[in-house]
């Protein structure tokens, strides 16, 4: 911590959905948290506003094309600004940082997550793609208590394990809202639009994860994420539809007892817990009144219609470099769907074709994963072009 006892925070991706909610947590707990460094990819005006509000001394802009953007002239006096992906990593591992929130989107977060762990900083990880792609490399780097999950389900599972013996757990129930297309047949899914897919029933999130939540790829990625975080296999992690998103996940123990985590559907709660752990601070969000909640509904996911969940299962079971291909192809296909160049169900077709073409290898290094990521993106772009 700094001289005044506050935890010194860096936020990578401060302009996104998670990033801005993290700023709000820091605003509400300014006596406990000090923001010392911020990054954004391209939204320079928002970055400058946050740097001014929190009087930040260092920022980085990862999209180098923003170098020279006139908006940067309004940075607070004495605030240093650097450009490029490496600049964000350098800023995260500098001496005056205690804890880094990685809230950038996609596999772009992997190199930063690795550097943060190796530098001995606390890593508050929202970027699930880091673990999906590079969990085999990241988990051995993490000391106990160093990596704190921000993904709401994984924060919930982490809390359901507290004070328990992990070897006496029987299963993890990973909850899923079901997304906007719960109950749809494959035929109905063929026809959904971008606007339909962006209307998530319970969470307000960035565009990429919102589409992933509609295809259920998000839940597939989260299953792989859970395997890495909690050292279990795919069979151990069962997907459970919980329509209201009020149960954030559960752990079932040998004796049949099931410990669940409940609360408001508000990401500021798991973000704050990653900063406050092992303490709990006053809530950043409205509390749930269970007297007026009504019912909790459960169901089973339909992996026949929602093929992405099935593909993630194959990738998770196979392991090695296949999750890297799954993730990279999915990033390209989701961007194509958002651009209107492929259909909703093309997303799983594109991902599957890339997975089919890949010779799986054991994960060896960040460089190897970066090469395979590039290959899969090229291959997915070709598959998109062939469909449009
Ligand atoms: P978002 O699109 O709203 O924000 C993304 C952030 O990443 C922005 O600050 C942007 O500047 C930055 N960014 C984009 N491309 C980048 C690149 N190539 N290099 C560096 N930075 C880049 O996304 P989000 O919804 O905030 O999600 C961020 C991460 O958190 C994702 O991995 C997502 O899966 C995870 N997550 C999000 C939620 C949620 O509620 N939004 C919940 C759980 C997990
Ligand atoms: Mg989640």
UniProtKB/TrEMBL annotation:
Residues 147-230 form the 1-deoxy-D-xylulose 5-phosphate reductoisomerase C-terminal domain. Its cofactor is Mg(2+); Mn(2+). It comes from Collinsella ihumii. Coiled coil: none annotated. HAMAP family: DXP_reductoisom. InterPro entries: DXP_reductoisomerase, DXP_reductoisomerase_C, DXP_reductoisomerase_N, DXPR_C, DXPR_C_sf, NAD(P)-bd_dom_sf. Its EC number is 1.1.1.267. The gene is dxr. It catalyses: 2-C-methyl-D-erythritol 4-phosphate + NADP(+) = 1-deoxy-D-xylulose 5-phosphate + NADPH + H(+). GO terms for molecular function: 1-deoxy-D-xylulose-5-phosphate reductoisomerase activity. Keywords: Isoprene biosynthesis, Magnesium, Manganese, Metal-binding, NADP, Oxidoreductase. This is 1-deoxy-D-xylulose 5-phosphate reductoisomerase.
């Amino acid at each position: 911590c700094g001289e005044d006892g506050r935890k010194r925070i860096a936020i990578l991706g401060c302009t996104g959905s998670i990033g801005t909610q993290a700023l709000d947590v820091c605003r509400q707990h300014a006596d406990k948290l000090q923001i010392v460094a911020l990054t954004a990819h391209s939204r320079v005006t928002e970055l400058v506003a946050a740097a001014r509000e929190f009087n930040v001394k260092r920022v980085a802009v990862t999209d180098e094309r923003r170098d020279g953007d006139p908006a940067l002239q309004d940075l607070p006096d004495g605030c240093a600004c650097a450009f490029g992906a490496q600049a964000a990593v350098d800023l995260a591992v500098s001496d005056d940082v205690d804890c880094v929130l990685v809230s950038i989107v996609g596999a772009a977060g992997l190199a930063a997550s690795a550097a943060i762990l190796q530098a001995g900083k606390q890593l508050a990880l929202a970027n699930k793609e880091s673990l999906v792609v590079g969990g085999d490399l990241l988990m051995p780097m993490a000391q106990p208590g160093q990596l704190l999950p921000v993904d709401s389900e994984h924060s919930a599972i982490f809390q359901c394990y507290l004070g328990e013996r992990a070897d006496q757990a029987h299963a993890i129930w990973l909850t899923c809202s079901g997304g906007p297309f719960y109950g749809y047949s494959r035929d109905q899914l063929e026809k959904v639009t971008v606007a339909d897919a962006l209307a998530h029933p319970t969470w307000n999130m960035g565009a990429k994860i919102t589409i992933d939540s509609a295809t259920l790829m998000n839940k597939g990625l989260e299953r792989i994420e859970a395997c890495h975080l909690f050292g279990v296999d795919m069979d151990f992690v069962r997907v459970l539809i919980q329509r209201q998103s009020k149960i954030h996940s559960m752990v079932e123990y040998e004796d049949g007892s099931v410990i669940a985590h409940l609360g408001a559907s508000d990401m500021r709660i798991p973000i704050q817990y990653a900063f406050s752990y092992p303490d709990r601070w006053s809530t950043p969000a409205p509390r749930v009144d269970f007297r007026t909640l009504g019912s909790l509904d459960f169901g089973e996911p339909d992996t026949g219609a929602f093929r992405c969940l099935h593909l993630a299962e194959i990738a998770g079971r196979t392991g090695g470099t296949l999750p890297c291909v799954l993730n990279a192809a999915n990033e390209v296909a989701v961007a194509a769907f958002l651009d209107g160049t492929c259909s909703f169900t093309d997303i799983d077709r594109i991902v599957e074709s890339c997975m089919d073409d890949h010779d799986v290898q054991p994960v060896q290094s960040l460089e190897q994963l970066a090469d395979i990521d590039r290959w899969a993106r090229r291959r997915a772009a070709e598959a998109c072009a062939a469909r449009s």
